[in-house]
Every structure is written in structure tokens, then in C-alpha cells.
Design a protein that fits this description.
The chain is mainly alpha-helical and 342 residues long. The protein has a 3-stranded antiparallel sheet, with no helix packed on it. Strands 1-4 form a two-stranded parallel ribbon. The longest helix has 22 residues.
């Protein structure tokens, strides 16, 4: 007790609903939902707002603090972070999280167009045999997928239940393979624009030139989206993907400010709470108790761990001796070597 800690705020990671609450602006389905630019939506039918164009006037910190855009700011609600405005730029420091925006948002809409035919009929895979082939390809990927991937997507017809990690795997690794030859060629090339741009923006060795290339790919993806899927495809998530390159320039690769680590620890935080109130205090108290005990284990990254002893493999003669042991798996650090296809 009585200790003072200095905290440096790097950025705020939030989904669309949390952004609107944190910055005190209207929801993601409003006419002016973007906290980064002055885009204006078009209400094409009840409940459907679309956001066209790729070049819009950027917002500034001064404009935001003065609430000059009455269509954007919520009436009578102040930004809860206003007291921090002397230390950080609220407009630029509230980043767009690609887990919610791209993996769950954009990829979710792509599958709605491909499998459900939600937007235009030309985007849907109409032949049931092609959908079965797509499922077969997913099954093949699952059988040979390394355990670095926590989840393996299966049954494309249940795409609405896919988790963000499953959609991320499809976006970054497997979809370019399983889509090839099964979807509309124009749609496939359109998807590759998104795939290539996000692959660049998660690469820790990115360069200013590569980020600029990724930004142009995203702009082309947004510009041509209505030609491929129809105008209803141009939702808030599609628009805000235009700002990902700026966030990478300011804060580094997408994974350095995504919500994936926080989602992974949600169950841990829930287990720390015992009553339905004062959640923050409970979590802080449990964390303080854990820090007061020396329960950490030292793990040598160079230590090799052998798992699954067996005697069913081939028995080569090594230096004239057969005195050795066989195992199914070897683990060293974060690397796993296994004799199994799983």
C-alpha cells in the first residue's frame, strides 16, 4: 500500500460498441460512426446503412474535443477519456482491432455472401457439389494442420459459429487454397486483395513501402466490393478497414494491438470473480494475492521434452548399439515435433 506507479498509455483496444462508449459518439450503424474520418453513410433501406468511397476528410484532436461534428457525437454524453486528452491523441490512439473488424466482421460478411447468398446471387456458391468440395478441402486442412492453430474450422455451413481464431486461419493461410477454382474468379481475386494486405500488416518486418502497398490493396478491396457483393456489403467494418494501415504506421503490426490476447484471458478473469459486483476490485485482489506467492516455474527454453514412449517404430542400428528409446513427440520451447499427422 502507498506505492505509486507510473503508467504510460499506448493505445485503447476496443470493438465498435466499446469505441462508441469510450469516445462518446454514435453507434456503428449511425450516419457518421467513424471516429477517424468524416465519412457519411447512406440509408439504402430500413436498418441498412452503407459507407461508400475511400478518401474522406480525417478528423483532428481539436475538432473532436470541440464536438464540431454533431452527426457523430452523442448528444449530452461526454467522452469518458476527455481528461487524458492532454497526454494522448484520442482520435489516433483509439485503434481499430482487426480481430473484430476483419476476422469476425469482414470475413463473416464474405462467408455470408459465399454460402448464404445474402448480398447478390452471383457471389453465392450455388452448386451444392462445390460446397461439399469446399468442406472436403477444410477436412484435409484439419488433418494436417499443426497444433499452433488452437481451432480448425470445419463444416462451412456452420460458418456463422466460427470463432475469430478459425476465421483468422482461413484469412491468412487456408482460404486462398480452398477457395481456388470453387468461387467466382472475380470474387477470388477480390478476396486475395484482403488476404495480401492483412498478411503484410501482421508481418513484423514490414517496411513503409509494404504498408503503402497494403493500404492501396485495402482501398481497391473497398472500391470494388460493391461490384462483387453488391452495395449492402459496404458496412462499417468494410469502411474502417481503410484505417488499419495508419494504425500500423503508428503502433506497429496488427497483432501488437489486437484483442486476441484479451479474449484468450476472459475465462481466467471470470474465474477470479466470486460475486456479481465489483468485478475490477475482485480481479485486482486475486492478482495481488497471486503476486504475493512465488508460484512461478522456471522453464528452460533449450530443454527438450520427450512424450509418448513406444517400441513400434523402425529399429535402426546406431553405432552397433540398439540401446535407445523411441517417442512420438519432442517439445523444445514453443516448437513441437510429432510423428503423428495431428
Amino acid at each position: 500500500m502507498g506505492k505509486h506507479f507510473s503508467v504510460d498509455l499506448r493505445c485503447f483496444v476496443a470493438d465498435a460498441l466499446a469505441r462508441s462508449f469510450s469516445l462518446g459518439h454514435r453507434s456503428h450503424s449511425s450516419r457518421a460512426p467513424c471516429s477517424r474520418c468524416w465519412v457519411r453513410g447512406q440509408n439504402i433501406r430500413p436498418g441498412v446503412m452503407v459507407y461508400t468511397g475511400v478518401d474522406h476528410r480525417p478528423r483532428t484532436q481539436e475538432e473532436y474535443l470541440e464536438k464540431l461534428d454533431t452527426d457523430h457525437h452523442s448528444v449530452g454524453i461526454d467522452c469518458p477519456l476527455i481528461d487524458l486528452s492532454l497526454h494522448i491523441n484520442l482520435v489516433k490512439s483509439t485503434v481499430f482491432d482487426y480481430m473484430h473488424l476483419v476476422c469476425l466482421g469482414v470475413m463473416g460478411k464474405i462467408f455470408q455472401g459465399l454460402i448464404d447468398g445474402r448480398f447478390v446471387k452471383t457471389a453465392k456458391i450455388a452448386d451444392a457439389n462445390l460446397v461439399r468440395i469446399l468442406d472436403d478441402r477444410l477436412e484435409q486442412v484439419k488433418n494436417y494442420c499443426p497444433q499452433d492453430f488452437a481451432r480448425k474450422p470445419v463444416d462451412i455451413n456452420h460458418h456463422g459459429k466460427f470463432k475469430a481464431t478459425e476465421l483468422r486461419q482461413l484469412l491468412l493461410y487456408t482460404a486462398p487454397v480452398i477457395f481456388n477454382g470453387l468461387v467466382n474468379p472475380a470474387l477470388y481475386l477480390h478476396f486475395l486483395l484482403l488476404h495480401a494486405s492483412i498478411r503484410i500488416l501482421i508481418n513484423p518486418h514490414f517496411t513503409p513501402e509494404s504498408v503503402a502497398f497494403a493500404e492501396n490493396c485495402i482501398k481497391l478491396f473497398v472500391q470494388t466490393a460493391s461490384d462483387v457483393y453488391g452495395i449492402e456489403f459496404l458496412s462499417y467494418n468494410i469502411h474502417t478497414s481503410l484505417h488499419l494501415a495508419d494504425d500500423v504506421r503508428a503502433f506497429g503490426v496488427l497483432d501488437s494491438f489486437s484483442a486476441f490476447p484479451y479474449e484468450s484471458n476472459m475465462s481466467y478473469c471470470r474465474k477470479l470473480c466470486r460475486k456479481p459486483s465489483q468485478y475490477l476490485q475482485q480481479i485486482a485482489n486475486r492478482r495481488a494475492e497471486n503476486c504475493g506467492t512465488d508460484s512461478s516455474k522456471h522453464i528452460d527454453a533449450n530443454l527438450m521434452k520427450f512424450i509418448g514412449a513406444h517400441a513400434r517404430g523402425p529399429a535402426p542400428l546406431i553405432d552397433g548399439s540398439t540401446d535407445y528409446e523411441q517417442y512420438r513427440k519432442v517439445v523444445t520451447g514453443d516448437v513441437h515435433f510429432s510423428s503423428s499427422t495431428r
